Fold this sequence. Notes:
251 residues, eight-stranded mixed sheet
Amino acid sequence: MQTVVDGVLTNYEVINPNQKNILLILHGWGSSLKFWIPIAKQLSRDLRIILLDLPSFGSTAPLPNDPNIPEYTLFVKAFAKKLKLSHFTLAGHSFGGQVTLDYALKFPNDLKSIILISPAVVRERSKSAKLKILLAKVLRPLFSILPKHSFERFLGWYTPRDYSNSTEYQRRVLQKIVVYDLKPFLNQVKVPTDIIWGSEDFVIPYMGKFLAESIPDSHLHVIYGANHLIYLTHSKKLIENLNQIVDRLYA
């Protein structure tokens, strides 16, 4: 389905459209709603599930200028208003989890609860990552004599694959969102929160327990053996966890 949200051509899908209880799912960086359709179809049939392509991904057009997390949050807010959603559950994976938490902080009255799936909400680089970035800066002059794009290929050694696979527009956005840190605001979350984390998530490691301890009224669900792409590698376990959460929320 397509609609226009604040001038942006927006793509979304609705499963079980006649149900009252609503779950809106936001995908992660470099992804799209199509990866979540198989998961959504195995969730409770008593739930209306809405999958949204975030701007510049899937079939949704980019936001104007070079947006940051607040602009994505306002876009989701406008989308929810367009579809007349209220008291719904908002879920997000990784970057989508970052937008989800920002939404919960700014518009808690819209929400019944949130579900954070490997959310990228605390932006602290490890010592090894900082060392690699410093090394890259030192070596950068060497790339002036090498073929075009050599430095970008080198970046792939120390930055997430997300960067090297992004468009120029997405790279500019990514440079902003990777420093948008919600850590100082975790104790201000006012809606019930469920956190789903993979025990082998080394993209954003060791944060599940920290988030559960920092966010009031939160529950942690660990999927052992799962990495950051939990929806691809451990979809069955993810579905089980989501259904358990939904059953509890709407019992």
